[in-house]
Specification:
7-stranded parallel beta sheet; 3-stranded antiparallel beta sheet; 10 helices
């Protein structure tokens, strides 16, 4: 098991149980106690967990639930953010959409825009999210491009080298990025490193990057970085975002829209 996979497993076990002992974790992961102690120490240095005598306890980092469990969380905020993000997209553009609850709402907002009811195409949408592709595929005016890859059941996103091959052959006007965390210092992040890698490629292929994130995601950090804050052009969030938080993002060169 690679270090990244081991760390992800340890964090998953921690959020499930609240605490882990070194010997218990070593037995479950079939590695030495010394390896687990070193993992715990390194994760504690990154503030991903809290080290205790003989083990570790969960830190206040946002952990992942499957997408179907997250849909109802902060639904009104996500819908407001999504409508504002959709308004930033011009007819005829090529748009990349990552997976996630907020980006799914962006897709729905685009689908009902009157000025996108016709065209050839009205929009080109590139996504690695199966649920988004499924919702938009019935819109004949939208050209839908789905990356290859292996489906990740937690988020319905396609990941892996097959997705890399498609993304390496395209260019985008805008990438709309769903995140679990966005911080001025640590950048945009996801829970899964393979998912983050695909999202990073979408950003690299785009002329501009828009992060769609409700205020609970701001100032947070998560396991796998997608891109640094300076790669983000625009952040769309809700009005619960604190003035100091907004100011910090603006000082980093990010345009912030609150809705």
């Amino acid at each position: 098991m690679s270090r990244d996979a081991r760390w992800k497993t340890l964090l998953d076990l921690l959020v499930e149980r609240g605490r882990l002992d070194v010997e218990e974790a070593a037995a479950e992961l079939a590695v030495s106690a010394a390896t687990i102690r070193r993992d715990f120490d390194q994760l504690a240095e990154q503030q991903m967990l809290v080290r205790t005598r003989g083990g570790a306890v969960v830190h206040g980092v946002s952990y992942e639930l499957p997408l179907r469990y997250k849909t109802a969380r902060r639904a009104s905020e996500k819908q407001r953010v999504a409508r504002a993000v959709a308004d930033l997209i011009a007819p005829g553009e090529a748009v990349g959409l990552t997976g996630g609850t907020t980006t799914t709402e962006v897709a729905r907002a685009l689908a009902v825009r009157a000025d996108l009811a016709s065209g050839s195409p009205a929009l080109t949408v590139v996504t690695n999210a199966l649920n988004i592709a499924n919702e938009l595929a019935v819109r004949p005016q939208f050209k839908i491009v789905v990356t290859g890859g292996v489906a990740r059941p937690q988020s319905y996103e396609l990941i892996g080298p097959l997705a890399d091959g498609v993304l390496g052959q395209i260019t985008l006007d805008v990438a709309v990025l769903g995140v679990v965390a966005l911080d001025v210092t640590h950048g945009a992040a996801a829970h899964d490193e393979a998912e983050a890698a695909i999202n990073r490629l979408l950003c690299e292929r785009a002329e501009r990057v828009v992060v769609a994130a409700d205020s609970s995601k701001l100032g947070q950090r998560a396991f796998a970085r997608i891109c640094p804050a300076e790669s983000v052009d625009t952040l769309v969030t809700d009005t619960a975002a604190g003035a100091d938080m907004v100011r910090r993002f603006e000082e980093a060169g990010i345009r912030v829209l609150t809705v």
